[in-house]
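The instructor's notes for this session suggest beginning with a concrete chain rather than abstract definitions. Hand out the sequence below and ask the class to guess, before any prediction is shown, which regions might be ordered.
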Amino acid sequence: MAKRLEGKVVFLTGAGAGIAKATAKMCSREGAGVAICELNREAGERAEREIREAGGNALFVHADVTDDTSVRDAVAAAAKHFGTINVLFNCAGGSSQDD
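After discussion, reveal the predicted structure:
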């Protein structure tokens, strides 16, 4: 049976833990390459390692979703690594307020 996400790449924010991490693992099991976008370096590296150890294709990219440049750099790194991005899963929250 074909995997539903075979050949696709999913970029997930906040994927070091919780719902986004579980989603990254599910996407990987369905054949996707997954970009683990995470502020917490240790959590992001752990999620990448767990997916790779399960036979998946994962890349940790460090980013702070409240910083536009940080997010652009993370997207660029993921696109360079995988060649494309097909799905964005935004699960990390953050905001900044200008005074």
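Then share the key points. The longest helix spans residues 68-82. The first strand starts at residue 9 and ends at 13.
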